[in-house]
Design brief:
Blueprint lengths: L9 H11 L11 H25 L4 E9 L5 E9 L10 E9 L5 H14 L4 H7 E6 L3 H4 L5 H8 L4 E4 L1 H15 L1 H18 L2 H13 L13 H4 L2 H18 L5 H22 L3 H9 L1
Parallel strand pairs: 1-4, 4-5
Antiparallel strand pairs: 1-2, 2-3
C-alpha cells in the first residue's frame, strides 16, 4: 500500500480479497488505523537503520530544508538527508525524508536550534556534524541564507566547512519574477489575473456562478489560478529546462564522472539551452504540440 502510494483505507478491502482467495488473515490488525501504525513503525525502523549505517561508516551528509505550511496553518520545516550508504562507494547517494518539524516561529535562531535537536535525535551528534556535515540546501528566504543572521550563517559559524546552497528551482522562480517586473506589459497581465484569482478564490458562491455560466455556454470550465508563480514556472519551457538540469545533475553526481567529462557535459548543456532559447520564438514548441496531438 505504501509503495504504491495508496490510501490506508485500502487495507480492509485487500484483506477481504485475500479471504475470498482462501487465505486465513486472522482477526486483528485489519483497520486503516492499524495499517497506518504498521507503516509508521516500518518507516521508523528503516530510517533508524539508514542513519545508523551513515554514522557508523562516517559518511558525509547534506541536509535539505523546505519551509512549508501545514493544513492547520502552522509553519513546518521538512528535513531531508542526502548521503551515501555504500561502504565501497560504488553506488550513487540516496536522498530520504528525515523529519517534519513544527516551528515555534520563523526566526533563524529557532530554526537552527530545532534542526540541530532533530539531527541529534536521529544519532547525528555534534562531533559527527563537525567533520561530516558538508552541505545545506534551502530556499532564498532571508531567514535561511541571510548574510548576517541567517540559518546558513549560524550553521557555518558552528561548522566552518559547511557549504550553503541556494535551491536552483527557487533561483529560477526569482529569475522569472525579475523578468516580469522589468516588462511592463507582462506585469499588467499578471495584475489582471491576480485580481481574478483573488475574486474567484475567495468566494465559493462566485466559483459556482462561474461554473454555471461555463455550463450554459457549453464551455470547459478551467480553474483560475495564479500565474508566474512556482506552479507556472513548472510548465512548458521552464519544465523542459528543469528536466535538462536534472539530467545534467544526475550525470555530474556519478562517481565515475571525471573532470573532462563534466566539462564537456556542461558545455553541451549550454549549447542545448542556447538552441532552446532560439527555437522558442520560431514556433518550436507549437510544432511539438501539434506533432503530439
Amino acid at each position: 500500500i505504501v509503495k504504491k502510494t495508496r490510501p490506508f483505507t485500502d487495507l480492509p478491502f485487500d484483506i477481504q480479497l485475500q479471504k475470498l482467495n482462501g487465505l486465513d488473515m486472522g482477526r486483528i490488525l485489519h483497520s486503516d488505523h492499524a495499517c497506518a501504525d504498521i507503516a509508521s513503525h516500518i518507516e521508523i525502523e528503516m530510517k533508524a537503520k539508514v542513519t545508523n549505517c551513515i554514522v557508523k561508516n562516517n559518511f558525509k551528509i547534506a541536509v535539505l530544508l523546505y519551509e512549508a505550511t501545514s493544513v492547520s496553518k502552522k509553519t513546518c520545516l521538512v528535513v531531508c538527508i542526502r548521503a551515501s550508504t555504500d561502504v565501497k562507494n560504488e553506488t550513487d547517494p540516496i536522498t530520504f525524508y528525515l523529519d517534519l518539524l513544527e516551528l515555534e516561529n520563523t526566526k533563524s535562531e529557532t530554526i537552527v536550534v530545532q534542526l540541530l535537536s532533530c539531527l541529534n535525535k536521529h544519532k547525528f551528534s555534534h562531533e559527527y556534524l563537525i567533520q561530516y556535515f558538508i552541505c545545506l540546501a534551502c530556499d532564498g528566504a532571508s531567514n535561511m541564507i541571510g548574510r548576517k543572521a541567517g540559518v546558513g550563517k549560524l550553521l557555518t559559524d558552528k561548522y566552518p566547512d559547511l557549504l550553503v546552497w541556494h535551491c536552483s528551482n527557487h533561483r529560477l522562480e526569482l529569475a522569472v519574477d525579475d523578468v516580469v517586473n522589468d516588462v511592463a506589459g507582462i506585469n499588467h497581465f499578471k495584475i489582471f489575473f491576480d485580481t481574478l484569482y483573488a475574486l474567484y478564490s475567495s468566494s465559493p458562491k462566485i466559483q459556482y456562478g462561474l461554473k454555471s455560466c461555463a455550463k450554459e455556454l457549453d464551455l470547459q470550465f478551467l480553474s483560475i489560478c495564479r500565474i508566474l508563480n512556482t506552479r507556472w514556472v513548472a510548465s512548458s519551457l521552464p519544465y523542459d529546462t528543469l528536466t535538462e538540469l536534472s539530467d545534467l545533475s544526475l550525470e555530474l553526481q556519478k562517481r565515475c564522472t571525471k573532470l573532462p567529462d563534466a566539462h564537456n557535459l556542461i558545455r553541451r548543456q549550454i549549447l542545448i539551452f542556447e538552441s532552446m532559447s532560439e527555437k522558442c520564438n520560431d514556433g518550436f514548441y507549437k510544432e511539438a504540440e501539434n506533432s503530439e496531438s
